[in-house]
Design a protein that fits this description.
2 domains; alpha+beta; 28% helix; 268 residues; 4 helices
Amino acid sequence: MTTAAFPALPSRYEPTRETLHAYAHAVGSVPRAHGIAHPSWWHVSLKVRPEGLVTDAVPLPDGGALSLRMDLRSHEIIVRTSSGSEERFDMRMGATGTEMAGQIHAVAAEHGLAGRYDRARFESDAARPYDPAAAAAYFDAFTIAHTVFERHRTALGPRVGPIQVWPHGFDLAFEWFGTRDEPHGDGEAAAQLNLGFYPAGDAYFYSTPWPFDPALAEVPLPHGATWNTEWKGAQLPYAMVQGRSDGSAMVGEFAGVVFEAASPTLGS
């Protein structure tokens, strides 16, 4: 089975990525405030689907449900309920993060989801630039990365989380959980290893074991990949794989090598 090549993400696309990031915060604010809370905050994320970046269903007071979608082909944010009600907001119109969130929250309130939102995450007074070609390229990159991640994730067994787009960083990632618990905050959390794609600036793929064994920095990685001892993980520059017919295989190899090296350090 072949996979399309990762598209180029030139620097001129960065303003559009920043717009998508701001709007993802606005979209994610609804499940953050009204969704069924998951202890690992999975309820605030978006999922990559053929129709766009989609939230989990948010329960409505009348027993129905609401979801939000960032459609990077039609370039709209779509708020839809299980009863068939639908509202669409054009991302090409240059709305600020504050304006876009206000429109989304007004629709949510019409369906009984009124409440306080963490506005610091999305408020801005600057008009948001939006290039449809750039948005489509980011969606293609997310979609191809999701396919690579899903193949790797499926091979790792049951101790994995879902593949998610996190509004906080507008990055795509999932976790594999080790068998050892580590002190974390006021309690404990499972040792873990993630695989992610960060599209901002000089985009890259990453895999960060937690906790990080310093000896891992001595493990050889595939061509182009390096260990980053500052944020304690491995990274593969997106530029190394974009446009290549074997780009997906390179990301898969990177993920596999890091997993084989790091997973023994995360067991009990």
